[in-house]
Amino acid sequence: MASFDPAIHPVRRALCFGAHPDDLDFGAAGTVAAWTAAGAEVHYCIMTDGDAGGFAKEDHAGMAALRHAEQRQAALTVGVEHVHFLGERDGYLEPSHEVMRRVVALIREVRPDVVLAMHPERNWDRIQSSHPDHLACGEAVVRAVYPAAENPFAYPELEAQGLPAYKLPWLWLYAGPRERENHWVDVTATFGRKMEALRHHLTQHPDVAKMEAFVEAKARDRAAAGGMAGDRLAESFHVVAVNPPEAIAGF
Question: How much is the average pLDDT of 16-32?
């Protein structure tokens, strides 16, 4: 199977999915910042409103609006101007056909080089990374990518709306089991912007210093796992070639 080489496969447009506001900032904001700095157009799609997050009960009624605002600011920090919200209820996300249809519509509209999403497989080493909404996000996106996005007979109303079938080249998955990781991105140069993006999610961090230490330690660990020499920081992904050159129709 083809492996991803940025020199051969430049990312000019990407569509990135997270289950909640802040998921993409934890998992991929350093990579996204590098893409936008190189001129790529990046879209975020947040599937739930994050309305079950936060710690202060007195603010809970307005949590969804707060988290939308936090995510928009975090996205701008790494150069992302397009943020889509599906509006699903936090904790109730399912890979339903309604969710999948909306994902397919967005993929066909944006027509990205890369779709980036949460991993549909549970990470038993750190169960917190496998919130049920995270798994549902990954499953919905994977099902949407193949075969629905590229099948003109899947959700035929989308074709009628001017959203023709689209064959995605690459699928990048984050927050999955370590044994699935096969691609590491050096984010040393953009790590400051990643951390700045995370700081915008004030409702989610009762101990900012502890959060920052955790994120930096994980980035150092990922760099070591990716074989990077020196004091480097990295993000890791399970990269899947959806439609490599050797693919034939339906296989």
Answer: 98
